[in-house]
């Protein structure tokens, strides 16, 4: 086996490996979002974090390698701007540096995963932007279009690639805009929820102060029993505890309410502790996180399904109605013994390309066949021959 053949085989193996990593990265993104919504076991989240780090590292190595090779061939500018090198870049170095590598280092040094809390507003916004950017990885699927049955045409490949880029970036920009609208942000929703709890519990505090001022200490128990039912109505409330009560109030247990799976939720979901007078409230912020993540997941699934529809439906239509017609006509002009006619669908016969195909079928092919039968040699039909024919 020659050295060139060995190199070609190695390149095919590497391309196959990269394609496999692309599909793994898509699954990893899906499972990562589902893990947030469903509160999967931390061990699974750690595995997904390691997989994400490995994918970003592989894509970074690939981008650097392609950049080095491009400088020896057509040039880096051609690779970056015309061969979707910018997609390789966005899906590799920025994600590795700003997302997976910090998470990897944090886990190695502290044995903990990043967990969003309201106090780290800037960090949340950065991580949110990075998570949105990870959706760009699906654009890497464009590189394997050449292996599809209906994508042998270079024109079809380039046309579909441009449409998919526009489609994906339209959804992506919409998602970025949605994520940075303050009214839709997780922090804004949590702030509104905090304000609601403060209004409610400040009223409870006023009642307890009245009990204290009027020395009605025995009425506290009945009052707390009445308001306890309100905690059950709100699934976001995880626990309610009495704090800083005057010593005259006698309670057997300061813990008024605690959800059954409290430890699981505290360990696997984001939460917020709020002290309001005599009450310490812990409520889950996961509901708001899930809203944002669900929108991101919906956009990402829409990108996947939309891309599949474009590839297997629109691409087929483009090939049968445009690129195949051009291919048949080009081959008929180039080869003297090629007489295949273009099939013209009745519903699309008024389209310009099929009007051109009709001219090819009705005028060019008969003239070519007549000339071929006369000479039985390689011949070319001139423009004058066509112009002098009686139409």
Shape: elongated
Q: What is Rg?
A: 33 Å
How much of the polypeptide forms β-strand, as a percent range? 5-15%
Low-confidence stretches: 116-126
> What number is the mean pLDDT?
79
The level of helicity is: 55-70%
Distance, first to last CA: 58 Å
Assign the structural class, choosing from mainly alpha, mainly beta, alpha/beta, alpha+beta, or little secondary structure: mainly alpha
Count the helices. How many?
Answer: 13
Spatial sequence of strands, sheet with the most strands: 2-1-4-3
Number of E-state strands: 4
Q: Summarize the main sheet.
A: 4 strands, antiparallel
Instruction: Give me the strand/helix succession.
Output: HHHHHHHHHEEHEEHHH
Quaternary status:
single chain
Q: What features would you describe in this structure?
A:
α6 packs antiparallel against α7. The protein has a 4-stranded antiparallel beta sheet with strand order 2-1-4-3, sandwiched between helices. β3 and β4 form a beta hairpin. The protein is mainly α and 391 residues long. The chain is built from 13 helices and 4 strands. Among the domains are: 114 residues, no CATH class; 98 residues, no CATH class; 53 residues, no CATH class.
């Amino acid at each position: 086996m020659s050295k060139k053949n060995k190199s070609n085989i190695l390149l095919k193996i590497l391309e196959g490996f990269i394609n496999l990593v692309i599909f793994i990265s898509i699954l990893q993104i899906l499972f990562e979002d589902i893990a947030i919504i469903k509160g999967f076991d931390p061990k699974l989240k750690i595995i997904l974090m390691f997989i994400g780090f490995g994918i970003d590292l592989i894509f970074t190595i690939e981008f650097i390698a392609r950049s080095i090779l491009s400088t020896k061939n057509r040039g880096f500018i051609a690779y970056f701007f015309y061969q979707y090198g910018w997609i390789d870049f966005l899906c590799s170095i920025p994600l590795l540096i700003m997302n997976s590598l910090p998470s990897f280092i944090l886990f190695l040094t502290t044995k903990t995963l990043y967990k969003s809390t309201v106090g780290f507003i800037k960090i949340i916004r950065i991580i949110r932007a990075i998570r949105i950017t990870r959706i760009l990885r699906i654009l890497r699927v464009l590189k394997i279009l050449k292996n599809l049955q209906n994508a042998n045409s270079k024109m079809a490949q380039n046309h579909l690639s441009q449409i998919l880029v526009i489609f994906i970036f339209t959804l992506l920009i919409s998602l970025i805009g949605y994520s940075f609208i303050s009214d839709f942000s997780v922090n804004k929703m949590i702030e509104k929820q905090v304000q609601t709890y403060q209004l409610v519990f400040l009223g409870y505090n006023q009642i307890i102060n009245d009990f204290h001022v009027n020395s009605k200490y025995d009425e506290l128990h009945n009052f707390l029993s009445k308001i306890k039912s309100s905690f059950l109505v709100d699934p976001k409330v995880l626990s309610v505890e009495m704090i800083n009560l005057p010593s005259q109030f006698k309670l057997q247990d300061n813990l008024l309410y605690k959800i059954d799976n409290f430890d699981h939720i505290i360990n696997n979901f984001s939460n917020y502790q709020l002290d309001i007078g005599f009450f310490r409230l812990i409520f889950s912020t996961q509901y708001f996180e899930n809203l944002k993540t669900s929108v991101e997941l919906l956009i990402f699934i829409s990108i996947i399904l939309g891309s599949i529809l474009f590839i297997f439906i629109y691409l087929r239509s483009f090939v049968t109605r445009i690129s195949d017609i051009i291919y048949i006509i080009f081959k008929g002009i180039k080869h003297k013994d090629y007489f295949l006619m273009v099939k013209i669908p009745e519903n699309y016969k008024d389209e310009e390309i099929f009007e051109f195909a009709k001219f090819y079928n009705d005028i060019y092919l008969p003239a070519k066949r007549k000339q071929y039968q006369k000479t039985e040699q390689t011949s070319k039909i001139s423009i004058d021959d066509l112009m002098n024919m009686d139409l």
